[in-house]
Specification:
The protein has a domain of 65 residues. The chain is built from 4 helices and 3 strands, in the order αβββααα. The chain binds zinc ion (ZN). Zinc ion (ZN) binds next to helix 1.
């Protein structure tokens, strides 16, 4: 389990893949970073009835890199650097959620 800066961040870390906001550890552009992910549906939801032929697909997850915690304002890089082993393990475990 990753250490968090505040209760909001801790809850967001444990909400990966669920409807709403979540925070995921990630390796993007060759560096470790937390991503804020927003999902309009749970990852297990059946989206086949929502697609319309000839229309652009709906985004199932929107992600924004985070430098600071949106709730408490703490800089996140020190939090990443003090737990790189756990960060890397969680980033690998949750990586399927970044592409679905
Ligand atoms: Zn925080």
């Amino acid at each position: 389990m990753l250490k968090a800066c505040c209760e909001w961040f801790s809850n967001a870390l444990s909400s990966a893949g669920e409807k709403g906001y979540a925070v995921l550890p990630s390796h993007r552009h060759g560096r470790r970073m937390f991503l804020l992910q927003s999902r309009p549906f749970d990852r297990t939801a059946d989206l086949s009835k929502l697609s319309v032929p000839g229309q652009p697909g709906m985004a199932v997850a929107i992600m924004v890199p985070l430098d600071f915690c949106p709730r408490c304002g703490r800089q996140l890089l020190p939090l990443v650097n003090e737990q790189t082993e756990a960060f890397d393990a969680e980033a690998i475990r949750l990586s399927p959620l970044l592409t679905e």
